[in-house]
């Protein structure tokens, strides 16, 4: 049994979960911003985004990194490849977006009034654009 392919399969499964979480979480916060504390929408979106973070976003980020690093351990020659360097740079970008969404989410929960729905809508596209670059790099391996 080639463990590498099982690890790669699990890696891609959690990549899908991570991307789903990164695309949904800002949407929940945009809806929460359209309501006030005490209103049902505010409470529902606050609780749903907290669950999303705890059950999907955080575990899948850890598993994507863990399984990705495991593959690099099993196949260290990949670290010589230009496409893997570029991929890891974009992956750091996705990880930074995860952290930034978490920070903005806490501000929305605390009703600091410093987060605009317009900003979240714009930032919502960034992980998707990074993911397009990552998938092309890891499948086409252009350099
Ligand atoms: C978090 C750190 C990550 C590391 C260390 C990592 C590392 C790796 C490695 C070593 C492979 C196997 C490459 C091969 O055998 O050709 C791989 C495959 C893959 N990675 Fe990642 N990865 C990471 C994150 C991501 C992310 C965030 C995405 C997408 C958003 C992603 C998408 C993929 C895909 C689609 C494959 C399968 C490619 C194929 O079938 O050949 N990875 N990754």
Give the arrangement of secondary structure elements.
Layout (H helix, E strand, L loop, with lengths): L2 H31 L6 H35 L7 H28 L7 H8 L1 H15 L3
Helix pairs in contact: 1-2, 1-3, 1-4, 2-3, 3-5
Bound molecules: protoporphyrin IX containing FE.
Protoporphyrin IX containing FE binds next to helix 1, helix 2, helix 3 and helix 5.
Plain-language structure description:
- There is one protein chain.
- The chain has 143 residues and is mainly α.
- The protein has one domain (3-140).
- It contains 5 helices and no strands.
- The protein starts with a helix and ends with a helix.
- The model has no long low-confidence stretch (mean pLDDT 96).
In short:
This protein has 143 residues and is mainly alpha-helical. The chain is built from 5 helices and no strands.
| Count of runs of 4 or more consecutive helical residues | 5
DSSP strand content: under 5%
What is the approximate shape? Answer: elongated
Tell me the number of strands: 0
Mean pLDDT: 96
Order of helices and strands: HHHHH
Present as ligands are: protoporphyrin IX containing FE
Q: Which structural class do you get from the secondary structure elements?
A: mainly alpha
What's the Cα radius of gyration? Answer: 17 Å
Biggest sheet layout: none
Helix percent band? over 70%
Which residues form runs of ≥5 with pLDDT under 50?
none
């Amino acid at each position: 049994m080639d463990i590498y392919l099982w690890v790669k399969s699990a890696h891609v499964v959690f990549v899908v979960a991570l991307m789903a979480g990164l695309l949904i979480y800002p949407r929940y916060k945009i809806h929460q911003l359209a309501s006030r504390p005490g209103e049902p929408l505010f409470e529902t979106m606050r609780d749903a985004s907290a669950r999303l973070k705890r059950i999907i976003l955080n575990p899948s980020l850890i598993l994507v990194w863990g399984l990705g690093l495991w593959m690099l351990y099993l196949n260290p020659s990949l670290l010589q490849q230009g496409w893997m360097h570029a991929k890891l740079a974009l992956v750091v970008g996705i990880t930074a977006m995860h952290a930034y969404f978490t920070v903005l989410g806490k501000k929305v929960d605390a009703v600091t009034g410093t987060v605009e729905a317009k900003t979240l809508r714009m930032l919502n596209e960034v992980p998707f654009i990074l993911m397009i670059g990552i998938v092309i790099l890891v499948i086409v391996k252009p350099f």
